Amino acid sequence: MKLKITASVADSFSTTDTNEQKKVLFSRREMLGMAGAAGLTALMGVTSAAVAQQAPEKVRIACLTTYWAATRSHADWIITKLLDGYWWQGAYTPSRVEVVSVYIHQLEESQLGQKICKAKGIPIFNTVGEAVTLGGEDLAVDGVVIVGEHGNYPTDLKGHWLLPRWWIYNQVIQVFERSKRSVPVFNDKHLSYNWDDAKWMFDKSRELNFPLTGGSSIPLYYRKPEIELPIDTPIKHSVVLGGTSDEGAIFHAIDVLQAFVERRKGGETGVRSVQSIRGPETWKWVENNPWAGKLLDAVAKSFELEPGHFQQESQTNMCVVEYNDGTMAAVIGARDVGWTYAGEIEGREAPTIISMLGWAGPFDQYHASNAQPHWITEMMVTKKEPFNAERLLLSTGIVNHYMESNWENGRYSPVGRRIETPVLNMKYRSTRGAQFNTGERPPSRPYIRGFDQ
Question: Which class would CATH give 223-357+388-424?
Fold first, then answer.
């Protein structure tokens, strides 16, 4: 979800003055001083074996973010759980990683992030390169977490939110190449608003041989019912209902779609075309495609909503996805059902309906995403992708082409052009098991800030 915070709202989180901000930024000299302190510990007779016995060494993570000024920003959701642990499968799970450095692109606005890092003794570096080298020359961390979501960034005419994810990622890659080694990278949400940049990001992960993951937290959220589609499910048609108001919101819904349809019979075959339809024209398309109307009616019935409930919303929008194997899908803006997947499956009389409900509050330690920090951690520890990174690229590509569909030669049309997408001809077979959270829901618990709220 897009959360834009103006300077005045950001100021409401301010708790430090300019001098305190400067103190948060550790200099390289101070970092070397810390290293010297570690040496003094050894001189005092504490052996490395004894230290290892006392506390097993954790995977060291650099967190790079655009903005960390609000409790509802993705940086706060994700990084605090890497710091303090998260709620997974009905229980609190302590953190298995150590956040050793932070970079914040919009630092002055990010008073909350500054305060947390100061309280927890985490250095904030002035550049991406310094954060992943810890002020040295070569890569000095075991994993990189990029949260390029939220902040005071413009949107272009087509609605792309110009978040600098590629810019941050590119600087990480420069360090990888210079150091002649690489580590796992998590990139929150889609790779980039620009397709060429997104493809470059994926290709670099393959060229330099490092695990890459990212995407939406919604496919990992609690489900009702608590089921996953088996591998090779013969899916014919799919609909996803949820928030689709802008680029960031529709990515969530499209990533939900991909998390289900990648498990269809024969595996992922790639996308043949993408089309955007907005406003009342959405429902004309549904009328002309009875399979979509059937799935919408089934969802309405399962939620005990009146027939035609979704069609009453005129200011909606839709992304139509045609796959290379003939499978069809539609992502449609809708309210009152959270994020819901409905699939027409060969051999089954009734559609399969799986909903992700109750997201995202309350805004405390365990709200919203908990499964996502779990799978970030798993990748950092095991150095294996939790799901095929091709899915992240495919979801990104569908969003990119959806955003282009309504525009041609600088002119807008609510019925977008059908864009053929040979660049999305990617094939893979998912082998993953279920990854969503289950069990008792988390209690309401204040953030572990290191200071009073």
Answer: alpha beta
